[in-house]
């Protein structure tokens, strides 16, 4: 341990602090950016919008493309990926999403499900 | 420096080690819901090569490692991600090393962060999904931790090997410490053997 502290330079510490600060700033921005709930999800494939669905209506959406199958489910104002035949299955663990800018990504299928909206689905909006 | 034949033998051993480390990582993926979180065991070998032999050797080992693992266990898509991560992190580490201001730990931390960041950049370009940027803070933190660990591992291995290496082949290509630390890293009390 003593040897480790002797080895480390000021610049090592500065580099670590820089990375930590960058990550913290991005996380803070993210928490702030997703603070409001959205009212619909936009589905994009390869960067192209292929569908838009309101979060207010429960739905099951089959998304098929070049052998990739994904089943997107909207339930109780939240969207999640219920089924996917991609090898890693990351998209299944990313949901459910309901707040603005929250996203489910399935890389093999080049699929992204992003929550958008002006927050009209908010509790604030209801009480207004 | 060792003879050409010995150098070939050293390089082969390092390629084999790096490939095995990569494969072990693929067998036991760390699952945090964020793709690309890895321990980066192969980085220990790359750091070793970078400090003992220099950038060209490290680059060759890294390239052959990526191709080998992708052809044996992966697919063309995984080769692209691995190549981008490996190339970017190696160049960044060589750059940090060249400034002479960072120790091997700092160099490794830089590589650990840049590796997943470069892969993320490729993923965003390939999929056309900028929303993937949301993963970046997590990848920076895990990369920083993984880089520190592999840096400490490489440093420990190198300090233990240093006396033997010096006796046989002379100094390393690059000292383990930055400029600010004590210049002679091989004095007996430093590695405590």
Secondary structure: elements and pairs:
The complex is a heterodimer of chains A (128) and B (193).
Chain A: H1 2-7, H2 10-33, E1 40-45, E2 48-54, E3 59-65, E4 68-75, E5 78-84, E6 103-106, E7 111-116, H3 123-127
Antiparallel strand pairs in A: 1-2, 1-7, 3-4, 4-5, 6-7
Chain B: H1 4-27, H2 42-52, H3 55-73, H4 76-99, H5 104-127, H6 136-169, H7 188-191
Structure overview:
The complex is a heterodimer of chains A (128) and B (193). With 128 residues, chain A is an alpha+beta fold. Chain A folds into 2 domains: 2-33; 40-127, N-utilization substance G protein NusG, insert domain (mini-chromosome maintenance (MCM) complex, domain 2, Sandwich), CATH 2.60.320. In chain A, 27% of the residues lie in helices and 35% in strands. In chain A, the strands form 2 sheets. Chain A has a 4-stranded antiparallel sheet with strand order 2-1-7-6, with no helix packed on it. Chain A has a 3-stranded antiparallel sheet with strand order 3-4-5, with no helix packed on it. Chain A is elongated. Chain A starts with a helix and ends with a helix. Residues 121-128 of chain A have low confidence and may be disordered. By secondary structure, chain B is mostly helical. Chain B has one domain: Arp2/3 complex 21 kDa subunit ARPC3 (Orthogonal Bundle), CATH 1.10.1760.20. Helices cover 73% and strands 0% of the residues of chain B. Chain B has 7 helices and no strands. Chain B has helices at 4-27, 42-52, 55-73, 76-99, 104-127, 136-169, 188-191. In chain B, helix 1 crosses helix 3. The longest helix of chain B has 34 residues, at 136-169. The relative contact order of chain B is 0.14. Residues 180-193 of chain B have low confidence and may be disordered.
Q: Which characteristics define this entry?
A:
heterodimer; A: 128 residues; alpha+beta; mini-chromosome maintenance (MCM) complex, domain 2; four-stranded antiparallel sheet; 7 strands; 35% strand; elongated; disordered C terminus; B: 193 residues; mainly alpha; Arp2/3 complex 21 kDa subunit ARPC3; 7 helices; globular
């Amino acid at each position: 341990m003593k040897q480790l502290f002797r080895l480390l330079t000021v610049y090592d510490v500065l580099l670590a602090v820089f990375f930590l600060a960058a990550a913290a700033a991005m996380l803070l921005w993210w928490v702030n950016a997703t603070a409001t709930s959205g009212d619909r999800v936009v589905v994009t494939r390869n960067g192209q919008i292929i569908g838009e669905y309101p979060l207010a209506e429960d739905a099951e959406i089959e998304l098929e493309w070049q052998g990739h199958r994904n089943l997107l489910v909207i339930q109780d104002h939240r969207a999640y990926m219920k089924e996917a035949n991609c090898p890693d299955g990351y998209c299944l663990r990313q949901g459910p999403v309901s707040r603005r800018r929250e996203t489910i990504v399935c890389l093999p299928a080049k699929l992204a499900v992003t929550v958008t909206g002006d927050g009209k689905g908010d509790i604030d909006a209801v009480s207004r | 420096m060792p003879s050409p034949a010995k150098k070939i033998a050293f390089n082969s051993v390092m390629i084999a080690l790096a490939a095995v480390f990569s494969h072990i990582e693929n067998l036991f993926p760390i699952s945090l819901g964020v793709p690309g979180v890895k321990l980066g065991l192969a980085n220990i070998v790359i750091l070793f090569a970078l400090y003992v032999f220099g950038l060209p050797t490290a680059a060759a080992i890294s390239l052959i490692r990526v191709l080998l693992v992708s052809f044996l266990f992966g697919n063309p898509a995984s080769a692209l991600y691995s190549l981008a991560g490996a190339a970017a992190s190696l160049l960044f580490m060589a750059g940090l090393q060249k400034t002479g201001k960072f120790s091997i730990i700092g160099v490794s931390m830089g590589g650990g962060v840049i590796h997943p960041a470069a892969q993320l950049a490729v993923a965003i370009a390939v999929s056309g999904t900028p929303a993937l940027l949301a993963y970046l803070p997590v990848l920076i933190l895990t990369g920083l931790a993984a880089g520190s660990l592999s840096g400490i591992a490489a440093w420990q291995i190198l300090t233990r090997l240093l006396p033997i290496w010096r006796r046989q082949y002379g100094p390393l290509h690059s000292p383990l410490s930055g400029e600010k630390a004590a210049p002679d890293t091989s004095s007996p009390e430093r590695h405590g053997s």
